[in-house]
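U., I forgot to send this yesterday:
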Amino acid sequence: MSRKKWTSEKIFTRLLNNITQKTFWENVRELRKRPNKEVYNIAFKLAKSEIEKEQIIGIYVLAQLGFDPRFQQEKTVDLYFELLEKEKSPKVISVILSSISHNNENLSEKQILKLIEYKNHKFVNVRFELALALSCLENESAIKTLIELSNDKDSDTRNWATFGIGTQLDKDSEEIRIALWNRASDKDQITRLEAISGLTKRKDKRIKDVLKTELENIDENGSLILESIEVLNDKDFIPLLEKKIIENKKSKRVNENWLLETINKLNEK
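Result:
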């Protein structure tokens, strides 16, 4: 029987006795499609449970209960911060921060400062989820913390924090550019490409030479480089792209259509 025909109570029961991650998320997603008082009240009660598994289920269901708008979003956010006041489990804290990231558009300064308390947490998942929770916030304290997290020892945290200040924010400042340049040579490729994308977005003139080097070594992860070249809109890249197409006939390191599309876009502008 399809989950769509199951009662909400049955799906919650399945979640509480869940065995695999796949069915866990299938059940969570189905409940999230039911933004009503019955689902909300059960999830809310679970989120306040003293049993970790029940807590996590409730927190996750509430995170995206209804999509636009969220069902009782303000009450849910207040609950998350109430839970943070006493929660000690890194796993549950991570789940709360992850859920706040889906509901962070109206956070108060006090709430943002509470989140920032986790920036030096010893558990990497907490710092990673914090980077998500602070993303898209045009708030000085949040931006400063993302800049700090862009230097994190964990590559996933660096990557998301760099994406947060580079792509998800329109704000430009010397501090942001310095942070992005610090990551423009990061040993982690995805973090490096996010930094380059952020600098290109801000039309930093120094990024042209970096893009040339990256184009020379482009591979299957190079879509961000090509997007950055399109944003820079410098026709000097056309012969370089044409040369790369010829080289790529043999090496096949990158999708040729990507290269052709970038040339076409540069020719159109």
